[in-house]
């Protein structure tokens, strides 16, 4: 296990951007779309300094609204880069997507919808500069908010607890590979569970946050030429953060990452790092 | 030119929606300025997905006054009650 110190700059930028524009860590992934974009500078004890970027810039406009259905169009791009030798990642995704809300959680009349479904349909073009591939990646991601199941709200006080399940289907078609590399397709299903635990919610609110993510991918189908190993991939993240100020601009945290993210081209990696967090 | 809707009207309607979803004790009081300072996550316990789902009821308020819709991304970015009222007011008068 490697231990490193890093500075994490979180970019929100919501207030200063024109209408419809938003900066985020990911555009269509519901679990990370709520998190700010980030730039992380890491200084390992026994290696060169490196940096990691997870940045998405999107434009959203509401397209149609009915009594119990709202559809938003999302256009944008996201960039994921890590220069550490053993975690190299360099991918760009251009996205055209549709975000929907199915159900009104607080209608003017009639029963409340419970659950409210939040599906996303996205067509992505991915350029992976580490694998030297270009691919087309249609994706369906579904999550939900439910008062009955208490999904989407903080439960309890000491500790407070917030949970969010998500499921997705994606089909990655590699259309071009450098040096006559293999092309083909992979159909994956993935499920994710995100949990935020606020140990002192009554006293500190979300200033002290233990954030846990577990995500698993299963290759439902893969072209024979692309098969390199098992058909399952896993990603586990744990992050303990304490923001010193109430407005959550300055924080310190410990992050543990273990696993891989094939959707974003992130290779298998295992590390723990102490992080100084600066939210702009 | 469409009639402009005033802030107290929008504030009352947004507070009504937040009270219905978050069920705070005591409920948000439209006559209180202090309640506008409340945080959606820390005080009303609304996580990201519930904030996102509020885009639809906020759109209904805005469109009732002849305004523009509110996207999921805009609703998700809100962090306080005041920001919620301001956003709906802006879109209602857009």
Notable features of this structure?
heterodimer; A: 280 residues; mainly beta; Porin; 2 helices; 63% strand; B: 94 residues; mainly alpha; Non-ribosomal Peptide Synthetase Peptidyl Carrier Protein, Chain A; 5 helices
Topology:
The complex is a heterodimer of chains A (280) and B (94).
Chain A lengths: L1 E10 L9 E4 L5 H4 L3 E7 L6 E16 L3 E14 L6 E14 L13 E13 L4 E13 L14 E18 L6 E15 L2 H4 L3 E15 L9 E12 L6 E12 L4 E14 L1
Parallel strand pairs in A: 1-14
Antiparallel strand pairs in A: 1-3, 2-4, 3-4, 4-5, 5-6, 6-7, 7-8, 8-9, 9-10, 10-11, 11-12, 12-13, 13-14
Chain B lengths: L6 H16 L25 H6 L1 H10 L7 H5 L4 H12 L2
Structural account:
The complex is a heterodimer of chains A (280) and B (94). Chain A is globular. Chain A has two helices and 14 strands, in the order E-E-H-E-E-E-E-E-E-E-E-H-E-E-E-E. Chain A has a 13-stranded mixed β-barrel with strand order 1-3-4-5-6-7-8-9-10-11-12-13-14. Chain A is mostly beta strands and 280 residues long. Chain A starts with a strand and ends with a strand. Chain B is mainly α and 94 residues long. Chain B has a single domain, classed as Non-ribosomal Peptide Synthetase Peptidyl Carrier Protein, Chain A, CATH 1.10.1200. Chain B contains five helices and no strands. In chain B, helix 1 runs antiparallel to helix 3. Chain B is globular and about 35 Å long. The termini of chain B are close together. The chains are: A mainly beta (280), B mainly alpha (94). Chains A and B meet through strand 4, strand 5, strand 8 and strand 9 of A and helix 1, helix 2, helix 3 and helix 4 of B.
């Amino acid at each position: 296990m490697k231990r490193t110190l890093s500075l994490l700059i979180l970019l929100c930028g919501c207030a200063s951007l024109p209408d419809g524009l938003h900066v985020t860590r990911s555009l269509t992934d519901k679990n990370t779309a709520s998190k700010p974009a980030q730039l992380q500078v890491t200084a390992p004890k026994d290696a060169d300094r490196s940096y990691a970027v997870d940045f998405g810039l999107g434009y959203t406009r509401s397209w149609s609204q009915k009594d119990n259905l709202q559809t938003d169009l999302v256009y944008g791009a996201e960039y994921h880069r890590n220069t550490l030798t053993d975690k190299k990642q360099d991918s760009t995704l251009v996205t055209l997507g549709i975000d929907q809300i199915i159900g009104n959680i607080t209608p003017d009349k009639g029963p409340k919808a419970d659950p409210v479904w939040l599906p996303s349909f996205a067509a992505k073009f991915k350029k992976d500069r580490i694998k030297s591939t270009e691919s087309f990646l249609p994706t369906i991601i579904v999550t939900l908010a439910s008062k009955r199941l208490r999904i989407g709200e903080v439960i309890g006080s000491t500790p407070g607890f917030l949970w969010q399940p998500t499921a997705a289907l994606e089909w990655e078609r590699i259309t071009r590979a450098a040096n006559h590399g293999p092309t083909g397709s992979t159909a994956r299903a993935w499920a994710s569970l995100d949990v935020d635990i606020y140990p002192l919610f009554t006293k500190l609110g979300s200033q002290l946050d233990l954030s846990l993510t577990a995500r698993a991918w299963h290759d439902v189908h893969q072209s024979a030429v692309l098969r390199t190993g098992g058909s399952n991939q896993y990603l586990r993240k744990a992050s303990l953060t304490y923001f010193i100020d109430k407005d959550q601009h300055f924080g310190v945290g410990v992050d543990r990452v273990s696993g891989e993210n094939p959707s974003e081209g992130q290779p298998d990696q295992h590390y723990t790092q102490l992080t100084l967090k600066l939210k702009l | 030119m469409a009639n402009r809707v005033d802030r107290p009207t929008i504030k009352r309607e947004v507070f009504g929606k937040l009270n219905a979803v978050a069920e705070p004790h005591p409920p948000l009081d439209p006559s209180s300025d202090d309640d506008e300072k409340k945080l959606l996550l820390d005080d009303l316990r609304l996580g990201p997905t519930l904030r996102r789902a509020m885009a639809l009821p906020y759109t209904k308020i805005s469109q009732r006054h002849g305004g523009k819709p509110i996207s999921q991304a805009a609703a998700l970015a809100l962090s306080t009650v005041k920001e919620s009222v301001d956003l709906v007011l802006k879109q209602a008068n857009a």
